[in-house]
Structure formats: structure tokens, C-alpha cells
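Collaborator request, handled under Task 6.
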Amino acid sequence: MTAGIAETNWSTRRRLIAAVLATGALVAVQGGLAPGATAEDARSQQWYLDAMQAEKMWKVSTGKGITVAVLDTGVDPSTKSLRGKVLPGKDFAVAPGDETKDDVGHGTTMAELIAGSGEGGGIRGLAPDAEILPYRLGLFGVKGNKGFTESAQAIRAAADSDAKIINMSFGGTSSDEQDSAIDYAIKKGKLLFAGVGTKKLPLSAPASHPEVVGVTSINAKKVSDFPVSGDDVTLAAPGEGVPGWCDARRASYCKVQGTSVATAIASASAALIWSKHPNWTANQVLRVLTDTAGMEGKKKGLSKYLGYGAVRPRLNLLENKGDPGDPDISPLTGKRTLHTRSASGKASSKANDSDKSGAPDKVEVADSKSEDGDSSSLLPAVGIAAGVVLLAGCGFAVARLRRN
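C-alpha cells returned to the collaborator:
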């Protein structure tokens, strides 16, 4: 059990940082909040959808058939963008409680970024036909909580559910109970994503677990300045200048930023790929995500700023790139996590490496060489197609073993 703090209570958050670090709190890993979009123009601020070629991807996959468990501050199913998309979950913050009650707005934002319909001018999720399974945690700001979060119980509940992906847009210090729950979820075939956190709140668990995908943030030009760096970073995703609900009233959207946002978009990217390849395992979906991730100028190994680079699901959906590999072996640790009935130990044949579309990425994200990220900028536009990042790094499984 760990004490909680929510990202939207900014003035309180600063006063509690010292206490949080001392007690090992779970926090919603978001970097900032600023006035922004009304509900009528949220879509216009979702710059990353055009950059990732979302409209083209949705002709191939919309996340249909994939359930994403959202472990957060609760998810309000009554927003126009989430109507009909939220399944019955459970509240672990209050007993008895209501997992659809969101006193902060954070969990509802994460759900919309993953699976929002965009109805009524709201947020359009990257995987708009995925379904959301909410598990409410006692993050600070959740009314009625007693200062503790049953994160381990929530992870186990998600592991026993029909959800394939577990989105954890929060961070804290590790515990034996949480690590054991994550191990259980991995053996059940789930794919887990978590934010790596910010420099102001460097609490990395559950992203620090060897089998959890740690997600950092990028903007339209470079790696973001606020996330922590290090071996916990696996992938990067858009996490700045994105619309999110300002508060519990959900009257308007604000511009939000953070590895929380990036985690949700990474989870949605996985949902798109898994929906197209429903017979793949979590290991195969993740291997393709990392195999097609983009980062210019890094030939081998992990970048402590971007991991293996930014997610580019379009390379698999539109160009059939990415080798799913062994369904049973984790691409993060090289260990066997599953025992499938596959006789060959592999999925479909290796994807075609050629670029059938003939349309290169519009932008490229360079690897950071310093803490301030001066060299992690977007290079000049190339061609007519939009994208987020350039070529994937290689040597994934071997280099990732450094984390252990």
C-alpha cells in the first residue's frame, strides 16, 4: 500500500513532494496543466493524430475487440466521447465505491485518449473502437480515499479480466506486492504500460519492473524536457500539448502534458496492432512496437531518453513491417513468459521490409546526447506523408537485458 497524490492538484503537489518521496507514494505522472481547448475544438489540438497518420490507420484497425484496463482515478462513462465504451470495473480506493466516479478528471482523460469517439467535439482516441475497463485507485485527489492505493489488487483484477492491455499512468516506489501482481499479469499474457514520471516526481514503479513498458514523452519537435531518463525508458509517445479534462467538472479541456498522456497513446498504439493481429501474444505485439519504433542516429541499444524510440504503429498497419518473433519469449528480458501451443514458436512469416507506400516520414526524432535534450530535435520535413519518428533502433532484446 502506498500513499497517493494526483497530478491535477498542482499547488498541493509541490508542498507534498518531500512527503511523497519519503512515504513512497503513487502519483499520476503528468507534467503540467494549462488552459486550452473547449469541448468543441479538442480534436483540433490533437496534433499527433495527423502526425501518426491516424485516419489511414483507422481504415485498417480501430482497436475493435481489444479491452484496455485503465488503472487510474476512475473513468466517467457519461462523457460524449466515452458513451458505450466503458465496461463495469471496480473501485479499489473506496469500499464500497464507484469506479465511474472521477474526482480529478485524469482517468477519464486517459480513457478518452485511448478509446474516445470524438463525439461532440471531444477527444478522439487513437484506438476509437477499443473498450475501457476502469479500476479506480486512491491517488491523491480522489475523494473518500484514505491515503492508500491498492495497486497490486487492481493489477491482479485486471490480469484476471478480459483486458489484454493494462494502462498505468501513475508512478511510485516499488513493493513486493506490486511486483508479484505484475509477474502474475505477465504470466496471464497481459501487456503492461506505465509512465516513467517527471524530474520533479522521480517515482518510477511500476515502470521500473523489467516486464513493464516504461513510456516517456515527446512533443512535435523533440523529446520532452520534463520526464526522467534512464534504463526504465522503453518507448516514447506524444505527451505534450494534448487536450485533457481540466478538472472533475469536465466542463472544458485544457492542454495537458506528461508521461501519463504518452502512456495512454502507447497503450492505444498496442491496441491497434493487436486488433489487426488478434492471435498474437503480448510478446509479439510489443516486439513489433519496439521493432518499428523510431529514433534517428542510434544503431544499437537503448537511449536513456527515448528507449527504442517513438511508437509508429502505422509501419505495421499500413506497411506490414515488424517481426513478431517468438510468442513465448519476452522482448524486454529474453525470458520465457508464456507457453503457447505454437509448434514452431513463431507467428506469421517475417514482415516485408520494403516501403510499399513510398512515403517517408515527415519528421525524425534524434536521440538526446545531454540532459537538456539540445540534440533531440526534429529534422527538416521530408516528403509529403506525416509521421512522428524515423528509423527504429535494433538489438532490442539483448540491450534491454541491461535493465535486470
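The cover message to the collaborator said: "Residues 112 and 373 are 30 Å apart (CA to CA). The first strand starts at residue 4 and ends at 5. Please let us know whether this matches your experimental observations."
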